[in-house]
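subagent[fold] <- orchestrator: predict structure for attached chain, return tokens only, no commentary.
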Amino acid sequence: MKVIYARSDTLDLCLALHRELVGRCSWEACLLPRPVEPAIAAFQHGLRGWRENGVTIPPAAFAAPDGLAVTDEATRTVLAAMEAARPRLAPAIAAFDERRTLAEADLDQRLRLPQVADPLAAAMGVPGTSLELPVHLVPFAPYPPSVGLLLDGSRVAGTYLDFRRYVGATLADAVLTQLGWALLRTEHGPGHLLGRLRALLPGTGPYQRRMRLLLTKTLVELTAGHLVRTTDPTHRPCVDVLGTAWRFPRLYDLARRHWTPYLDGHLDRERALVAIADEATAYSPRWYTENIDGAALAADFYLLEWLAVQGDAKAAERLAQWAPQLSADFAGQLDLIIGTELGHYECARLDTFPPELATFLERVNLGDSRVGWWRSRRELGEIRALDLAVDAFAGPGVEYGGEAWAPIAAMLRRYAAGELPARVFIDQCFTLQHNNGCLFDKYFEAEHLMPVLEAQAAGELATLARHSSAEVRRRWQRHRHHLERGYSPEWLGDGRAADAPPPDRPRTTRLVLGAPPPGSLGCGSAAEAEQLTASPADATAAIRTRTWQFRRPWPAVPRQYTALTALLNTDLGDVTLDLWPTVVPHTVDNFVALASGLRTWRDPVTGARRDDPFYDGVEFHRRVPGFMIEAGDHSGTGKGGPGYRIPDEFQAGRVFDRPFLVAMANNGRDSAGSRFFITLAAARHLDGGFVQFGEVLDPDSQALVTAIAEAPGPVRLLRVTIDATPA
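subagent[fold] -> orchestrator:
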């Protein structure tokens, strides 16, 4: 087994452009100013053509010396878009040449293939001796996952990894994971991991195939992380820190308990796989592949707590066993999510922060922030690291929703310091929300969590019982039966007092989140165990789509207007904007407040808080004749803003089908602030990506907008005058 470092300018450019258009988080560094020009946006049209033609993206031929042959319109479109973007992307890519060389050298030291190649091949169940894998370390790749195989048909032609995101031992872990997948795609034999799983877990249903795929993914990642830890005991494996263990905890727990003894040399590989299969086939595949229901966990907790207060000794015992483990698991999830949220500071102006905070955020964002946060927390200590996280969220983090995350980080700090009892911490975890909704919606099904919390507050025990696990539901029914025996049947109604309590069921002693079998306390499901046993229906059941709960809160009720115009006084003359306060009231109110000095903003250059009119004196920092002009950034870079972000206020049917439309610029979903642009032509490639809030209707103003775009020198926006008719 051998790794060869390879480089391809074409692949670098393709991945960077793919990341920029459809695979970049809104807070990550922008390489291309948004909105992008039509010639560049055509890349997405080319990608759609590739998908329709069954072309793997990115094509392996992009990494080949001869490049990709132009044989179809989709490829021609993609290549043309890449050339249009090259002047801006190529310098950004070239700036990482030295770091790429250092990453290759560091990976050589950490990978230690002579020691780990044979164990990796043995775990995959293939010989592996003939594998020679070209590895492309690239500076920009679509996220998630910033890593992937290059496939030429069924043949593995190489792999790519974003070395900015995967750093140090995490990069070695990711490379070994890719090597594992390459082995499974290129070698075959009687012990082949996928072949053994197909034999041990047969079935062609969607859930059955999904479980085998996720189980293979988990075993490959467990193996890679274990092998890195043999040479670096301090490494936190990617299967944990990058999320697989948290997204599919039931499957992860099943795999970990049987596969880790094999990796440690205490169990034969075949026996480990058989043990995994024996346990997995006891339940429906959907039990292992669907998300845990947060409502069931909350209902279990609150109903057990109520029963304990009522004097149910067994309920109190179960709660005492479960609460410490549940609180520790919640703390682990919060810790991981806080690390994710700190990644929002990748583009922050660290020179405007206090020195210790700036150093901390720079360290956290060295590579994937989830890994950087864990590393920084280990070096600084939990309490100091959480203090700095609170400072980051409460101060400069307001732009990234920090007003919601500061109290969450502060709560975790109090728990880590021993100031919050486990049960109080659990209660706060259930009730706290971040800026997009339920605190645990990243890893839980959260559709019914709010109704459960409302039922708990109202004392509606029947609702809690309906959402709780079968074990807790029966505990509540027995308690109710014992109470009812002391009342007259006339009070209870016909037959109620004669109802027998449900029988006890065997219960698990494993209470780690996701580990209990169906029906047990903390299993994260209200279904009876019998409903989740394996059945012939598994072969035909369609995979249930997860229900995501998103909310996009606005900071205040907008000021209401019936008519509204804005006069842009520029170096070249005045432009009148007719704004749409009844169509997008929040967006218009934000623009008016900034223009009039009614809203406090943060200077992107100095970091100082200001309350003077925002737009006075800013330049039209971007002017593209025939496309658009843009203003609203005091840094003049097209990357600055007012120090906060506003949610998108899209309206159905609003398209860029004509020139002189006014819209908010952004860096991705829900990231607009102060930058706005005016189109000079129809631009349908912008549809659905930018919120329109006005139009230039006056012919003289339209002519001036065109003149601003074509002016040879800088053009400033001197002031904005608002003429409003209040509602």
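orchestrator: received. Logging for downstream: The chain has a mean pLDDT of 91. The two ends are 73 Å apart (CA to CA).
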